[in-house]
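Backbone-to-sequence.
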C-alpha cells in the first residue's frame, strides 16, 4: 500500500473529495506503516525509537479494534524512560463495585527489587495510589488528577495526568492506557520517578517539563 496505492485502491482519494489516503492502523499493521503514519502526524523517529514505540503500539492495538491518530499522538506524548526509572509497575489487579471495600493488589520493582502489597481505598484509583505509597512511602501531595478520553467508544484510550508537590518541588506525570486505573497508576509512578530526579538536583521549583493543562482539560 505504501509503495503503490493503486494496487489496492479502486479509485483515487481525490475522486471522492479526499486529500490523501488514510491508513487504518490495527494489530496487523507493521513498522513501516507505523513509521509512515507517525511521519504524517509530524513525528520523525530513529530506528531505536521506532522499535520502542512499536512495542507499545502493538500492546495498544491488541486491545483496540482500530488505533486512531489521536491514540498515536497520546502514545508519543507519554513520557517513559524504562531504562532509568527506579520505580516500575509489574502487575496490578483491582477489585471494585457497589460493595466495598475497593482493593488493589500491586507489584512494583523498586531499585531492582520486586515488592508487593494489597491496599484498600475510596474507589479503585485511591486504593491503587495507597498501594503505591505503601510500597514507596513519600510526603508528596497530589495536587491535580485528570482523566481525558483520547477517542470515543468503550475501548477508548484514557490519558491520565497528575501533578504532585513535595517541599516546593512540583512534578507532573502522564500516561495513557485503555484501562483508566492502569493509566492512573502509571501516571502516578511516572510523577514519582521525576520527583526522585528532582530530589537529586535539590532545586525546589516548577518542573520545566510540566504539562500544558489547557491541553488536557
Amino acid at each position: 500500500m505504501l509503495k503503490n496505492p493503486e494496487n489496492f485502491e479502486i479509485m483515487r482519494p481525490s475522486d471522492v473529495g479526499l486529500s490523501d489516503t488514510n491508513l487504518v492502523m490495527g494489530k496487523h499493521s507493521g513498522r513501516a506503516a507505523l513509521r509512515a503514519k507517525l511521519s504524517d502526524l509530524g513525528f520523525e523517529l530513529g530506528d531505536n525509537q521506532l522499535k520502542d514505540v512499536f512495542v507499545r503500539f502493538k500492546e495498544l492495538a491488541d486491545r483496540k479494534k482500530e488505533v486512531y491518530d489521536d491514540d498515536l499522538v497520546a502514545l508519543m506524548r507519554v513520557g517513559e524512560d524504562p531504562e532509568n526509572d527506579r520505580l516500575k509497575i509489574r502487575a496490578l489487579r483491582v477489585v471494585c463495585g457497589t460493595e466495598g471495600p475497593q482493593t488493589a493488589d500491586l507489584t512494583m520493582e523498586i531499585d531492582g527489587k520486586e515488592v508487593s502489597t494489597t491496599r484498600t481505598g475510596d474507589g479503585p484509583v485511591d486504593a491503587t495510589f495507597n498501594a503505591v505509597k505503601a510500597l514507596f512511602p513519600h510526603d508528596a501531595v497530589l495536587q491535580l488528577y485528570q482523566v481525558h478520553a483520547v477517542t470515543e467508544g468503550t475501548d477508548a484510550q484514557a490519558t491520565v495526568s497528575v501533578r504532585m508537590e513535595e517541599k516546593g518541588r512540583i512534578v507532573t506525570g502522564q500516561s495513557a492506557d485503555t484501562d483508566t486505573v492502569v493509566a492512573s497508576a502509571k501516571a502516578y509512578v511516572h510523577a514519582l520517578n521525576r520527583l526522585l530526579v528532582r530530589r537529586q538536583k535539590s532545586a525546589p521549583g516548577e518542573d520545566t517539563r510540566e504539562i500544558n493543562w489547557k491541553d488536557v482539560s
